[in-house]
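Mods, move this if it's the wrong board.
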Amino acid sequence: MPATAAYRQPTVPSMPLTMPGKLPYYPSPTQTASYSRISMSPPEAGSSVNTSAVPSLTSSTYGGSAAGDYDSSNGGSSGVDLVEMLNDRLSNAVDPLPLDRSLARQAQTSGELNAKHRELLELQALAQRRLKGTRANFADGMKAAKEVKRDLDWTQKRVTALKSKAERKYPTQYRTASQQYPAPVDY
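Not the wrong board. Structure tokens:
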């Protein structure tokens, strides 16, 4: 494969998606609007200008009527920042203690796992060294066994040759000795 060839992802066929049909025409605003438009002028710069990105609950243009569902005179929230209030509620809703405990337990378990992994690697290396030594000892033992077998075969041939030579040279003495000292039974 040449080094300049680019890797290409295999293509997987996808299932078709059902798409809603298009309307033949654009509906008029009177047909789709289920609300009425109220013409209001924007608040003046001196009265209640909200410069934050999130509208304040005290603004008269924020939901509700101009009579003031959230009016400060009726005991509503005056000057409460919505972002701060949500942040306080979320910080009180989430208890970090179980998360910290689980994170500490995860770190402890990870440490124990790494220690066991290192121990297993050390034991594997020890087993490899022992196996190598055992194979060397086995090879030496096999070499010694082959030498012993070769020596026994030579000795057996030599004894057989001496036996047949003695039987030919001294047949009567050999027969009496064989009767007096019978040969062991081969097993």
